[in-house]
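To: structure subgroup
Subject: Chain for Friday's discussion

All,

I'm putting the inputs and outputs inline so they're searchable in the archive.
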Amino acid sequence: MLLALAVALAADGLQIALGPLGWPGGDQIIDVVAMALTSWAIGFHWLLLPTFVTECVPLLNDLPTWTGCVVAVVALRKRDQKRSAPGP
């Protein structure tokens, strides 16, 4: 979980820092790497797909969507673990 969060923070940070430079295809490369590493670290979750698409929308790609997605996926998985845990 920490690795996925670190990847998300790095991806969002790079996109914010390098965004004004406007290097062609750079944001998409970061997004592909972020999705692959995040999926590897925490497993695939359906929330990763809309996050990936949102990153292609101008102005929305300036938001920390990868970080928000990873936090949401981790919270959902923890909630599911609590529900499936056997009671006393």
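Points worth raising on Friday:
The helical segments are 2-18, 26-42, 48-54, 65-84.
The chain is about 70% helix and 0% strand.

D.
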